[in-house]
Amino acid sequence: MNSPGVKKRYWQSRELIVIGIFAALIKISTLLIAIAGGGMNPITMVLKNVVATSLLIVLLYKVRKFGVLTLFVFVSSVVSLLLMGGNMMTLPGMIIAGLICDCLIVTIGGYRRAWALILLVGLFDILSRAISLG
Questions:
Q1: pLDDT for residue 131
Q2: Helix and strand numbers, DSSP H then E, in the chain
Q3: In sequence order, what are the residues at sequence separation of 6 or more whose Cβ sits closer than 8 angstroms to the Cβ of residue 112?
């Protein structure tokens, strides 16, 4: 029961756990696909991106709050750093893309619309790669 003086937290423990599990699941599944595919060939890269994007869409359906994409980027970067020891050069681009897409999701109708989530996860993928290249 909440007392009148207690401030309600924005993130619940369940939501943070779901974000962490999905970040690790996406990292490990894409790594396994790359290893099973024999390296980074075009078919493996497409399959890896399809799996990662579809799992990210499922994550956004599961936790429908502002900042999920940006928090996912932070957690995913930590998991990537622990598993593969790298990927810190792409972090600023991914954070900027996550913030932009989080703001766009809220402005075009929030997390209720399926087409908005799918469109903006695709935009996140494109923006994060484009900004990281820059």
A1: 87
A2: 5, 0
A3: 64
Q: How far apart are CA 63 and CA 23, in angstroms?
A: 13
Distances in whole angstroms, Cα of residue 104 to Cα of each of 5, 66, 87, 89: 33, 10, 25, 24
pLDDT in tens, 70-123: 999 999 888 888 877 766 777 888 889 999 999 998 888 777 778 888 888 889
Higher local confidence (pLDDT), 2 or 18:
18
For residues 18 and 63, what is the distance between their CA atoms, to the nearest angstrom? 8
The answer to whether the CB of 102 falls within 8 A of the CB of 66 is yes
- Three-state SS at 9: coil
Q: What pLDDT band is residue 16 in, cutting at 50, 70 and 90? A: very high
Dihedral of CA 86/118/102/68: which sign? negative
Contact status, residue 30 vs residue 48, Cβ threshold 8 Å: yes
